[in-house]
Design the sequence.
């Protein structure tokens, strides 16, 4: 078990190294930031001075070494606009995003798992058909359109909820719905179909033959088996939630999160250290979630533990 | 004779399908006495497994439905019991071994957990005593160093061992009737024999009655006291093993016995029954076997044959013996 976890941590570190290297390469492919910073009217001396400041006058491998060394010390450069450390800027803005993502995650699970399980248990009944209809809607309706519709209804017509910004708990309602909408539908459908397979299996039959009560048959013997594909898909979706959510929902609802920071400010003003820090941070989240999921697998499935 | 442990009377279990009502079990009656072994023989899809699942009221829902008959357990009708009462019966009084040991254990729970679960419910044991009893039960089915293997998972066991674990789960709470639904079909031939011997030995020690579902007459001869032959959802002949092998009355039984290859004879082709079993959603009005029966008359096609008692305990459904 310890070896399994250690192995996955080593893999995660390796993945992060690849990410960091890719980011290094991509930023350089996008052209020299100095041209943007200095502007067209800058003199040769000014350009040279800037190059020296960013270390761009040195050979590539030396730049790469300095870059890696910086990251290891937690130095991601500083924002071109605010002159603040880039990662500090990202972390400060990501708190609002993480809050939103966490609430959306809890909401998604609380909705999708029970509905999916009950839809499978009561297959073909009214609840199941209702859930199927919702599942199709959830995967067909684009989030940005849903967001605008919600604002029009709940903020415009009914005036129940604030249209934008982050204030009290009420301000979470619409962004969370927009972010979770797709995920609830997807996870619910997957939970339903895997549960159907599981409920049809021989070991469920044997569990009933033993005389186990139905709740134990479904929630213990059934769900633990159905959980593995659901978690795999769920983990992918959650990170997607964070990314899509932070870009689409934060833009629609002017949420002060990291998505809006990247799109609206950093990319538009070519604040490349902040873009770089944000991309690395999001990838870090992705890798961490995956590491967590791998460890969770080993708890759920003994066959993985030994592999 | 003593009072039967289980008495199935005119049991009918139907499945609703797109093609109509499938009469998987259509008026089955038989009884099992304490300590005896009843064989249930027939082709695939003749309703053997559905009969067994109907006794435990575990027919797949909502497609399957027990539409009539009685299942008397020590005189009480199981079909009238509440779900809570049924749960006490399942595993506690009547238990079942499923066909495929590779899929009938839950892959994500340890062997110990899966065996202990039933004991915890029916015997209300906890903690150390529960674990002790679990190891004991696994020892009963000859899992070596059972105590050390309690925390192992199904994938760490071989097929034969898994089927013994399934046996342990079923026998853990000392049921009085064990339904074995082709328990050896997916095992190696050598392991099959071992497993049958194990079941017989446990039966000798505990006196558990058995319903043994199989399509292997060799197993019937070795393990059963009486045999019921099923065809198209009905029992067409019931007899003691001796009577059935020496004086089969129903043409279907005879044909099945003729299909067993004989090592002493030299034949070019093995015997087989012509035709296909009928579709269970459109059974003929007369005898279901008539289309394949070499002795069929006009009457067989139109009228269902009566139950004919030949001698004590030997019954056949056929116009020919009527």
Sequence:
């Amino acid at each position: 078990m310890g070896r399994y976890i250690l192995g996955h941590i080593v893999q995660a570190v390796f993945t992060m190294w690849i990410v960091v290297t890719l980011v290094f390469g991509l930023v350089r492919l996008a052209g020299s930031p100095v041209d943007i910073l200095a502007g067209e009217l800058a003199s040769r001396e000014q350009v040279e001075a800037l190059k020296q400041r960013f270390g761009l006058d040195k050979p590539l491998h030396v730049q790469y070494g300095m870059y890696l060394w910086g990251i290891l010390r937690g130095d991601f450069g500083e924002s071109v606009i605010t002159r603040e450390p880039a990662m500090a800027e990202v972390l400060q803005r990501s708190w609002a995003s993480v809050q939103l993502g966490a609430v959306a995650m809890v909401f998604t699970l609380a909705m999708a798992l029970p509905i999916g399980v009950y839809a499978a248990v009561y297959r073909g009944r009214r609840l199941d058909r209702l859930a199927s209809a919702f599942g199709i809607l959830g995967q067909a309706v684009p989030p940005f359109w849903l967001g605008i519709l919600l604002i029009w209804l709940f903020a415009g017509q009914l005036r129940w909820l604030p249209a934008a910004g982050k204030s009290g708990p009420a301000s979470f309602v619409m962004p969370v719905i927009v972010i979770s909408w797709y995920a609830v539908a997807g996870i619910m459908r997957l939970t339903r179909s895997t549960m159907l397979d599981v409920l049809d299996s021989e070991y469920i039959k044997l569990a009933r033959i033993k005389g186990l009560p139905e709740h134990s048959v479904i929630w213990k013997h059934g769900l633990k088996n159905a959980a593995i594909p659901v978690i795999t898909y769920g983990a992918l979706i959650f990170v997607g939630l964070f990314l899509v959510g932070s870009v689409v929902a934060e833009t629609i609802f002017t949420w002060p999160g990291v998505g809006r920071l990247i799109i609206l400010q950093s990319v538009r003003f070519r604040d490349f250290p902040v873009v770089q820090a944000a991309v690395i941070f999001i990838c870090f989240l992705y890798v961490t979630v995956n590491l967590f999921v791998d460890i969770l697998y080993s708890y759920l499935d003994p066959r993985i533990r030994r592999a | 004779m003593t009072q039967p442990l289980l008495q199935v009377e005119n049991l009918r279990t139907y499945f609703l399908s797109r093609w109509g009502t499938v009469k998987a079990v259509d008026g089955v009656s038989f009884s099992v006495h304490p300590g005896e072994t009843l064989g249930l023989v027939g082709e695939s899809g003749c309703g053997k497994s559905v009969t067994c699942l109907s006794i435990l009221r575990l027919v797949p829902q909502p497609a399957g439905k027990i539409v009539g008959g009685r299942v008397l357990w020590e005189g009480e009708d199981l079909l009238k019991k509440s779900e809570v009462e049924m749960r006490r019966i399942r595993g506690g009084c009547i238990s079942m071994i499923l066909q495929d040991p590779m899929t009938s254990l839950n892959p994500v729970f340890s062997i110990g957990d899966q065996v202990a679960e039933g004991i915890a419910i029916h015997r209300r044991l906890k903690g150390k005593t529960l674990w002790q009893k679990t190891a004991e039960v696994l020892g009963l089915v000859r899992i070596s160093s059972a105590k050390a293997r309690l925390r192992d998972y199904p994938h760490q066991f071989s097929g034969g061992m898994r089927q013994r674990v399934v046996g342990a789960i079923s026998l853990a709470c000392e049921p009085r009737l064990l339904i074995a639904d082709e328990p050896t079909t997916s095992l190696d031939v050598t392991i099959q024999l071992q497993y049958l011997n194990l079941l017989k030995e446990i039966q000798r020690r505990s006196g558990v009655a058995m319903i043994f579902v199989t399509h292997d007459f060799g197993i019937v001869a070795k393990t059963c006291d009486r045999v019921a032959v099923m065809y198209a959802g009905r029992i067409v002949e019931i007899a003691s093993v001796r009577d059935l092998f020496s004086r089969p009355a129903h043409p279907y039984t005879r044909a099945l016995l003729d299909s067993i290859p004989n090592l002493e004879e030299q034949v070019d082709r093995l015997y087989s029954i012509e035709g296909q079993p009928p579709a269970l959603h459109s059974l003929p009005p007369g005898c279901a076997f008539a289309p394949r029966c070499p002795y069929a008359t006009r009457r067989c096609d139109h009228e269902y044959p009566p139950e004919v008692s030949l001698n004590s305990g030997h019954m056949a459904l056929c116009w020919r013996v009527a």
Summary: Residues 189-206 of chain B form the longest helix (18 residues). The first strand of chain B starts at residue 6 and ends at 17. Chain B has a mean pLDDT of 90. The domain at 6-93+175-317 of chain B is CATH 3.40.50.300 (Rossmann fold).
